[in-house]
Specification:
Elements (H helix, E strand, L loop, with lengths): L1 E6 L5 H11 L3 E6 L12 H21 L2 E6 L12 E4 L7
Parallel strand pairs: 1-2, 1-4, 2-3
Length: about 100
């Protein structure tokens, strides 16, 4: 199974990791939702914190599931044409 992890709010990371472990994917791609397009080269404290968080997520996905992390995306457009069996994460719906 191919899974897309959408990393949004940091306070949901542990819940997302638990949900991913339950799904038991073979491969995982990660979308960094709402990140600045230059996050990979941002040496500010926020940029460094985002990369540290991402490294923790990638390592945790691999350790908890044995799945291969197959890629990272900074925006949804980079995923055009990709197909995933399951999507975990993303924005929570807002009540009307």
């Amino acid at each position: 199974m191919d899974l897309l992890l959408i990393a949004g709010d940091e306070d949901r990371d542990e819940d997302l990791l638990a949900e991913i472990a339950t799904a038991r994917p073979r491969r995982v791609a990660v979308l960094i939702e709402d990140a600045d397009g230059e996050w990979a080269w941002d040496d500010s404290p926020d940029g460094l914190a985002l990369r540290d968080r991402l490294a923790h997520l990638l390592r945790s996905v691999e350790e908890r599931t044995g799945a291969a992390v197959i890629g990272l995306a900074g925006d949804r457009g980079q995923l055009r044409g990709s197909r995933f069996d399951t999507v975990v994460g993303g924005r929570l719906p807002v009540a009307a």
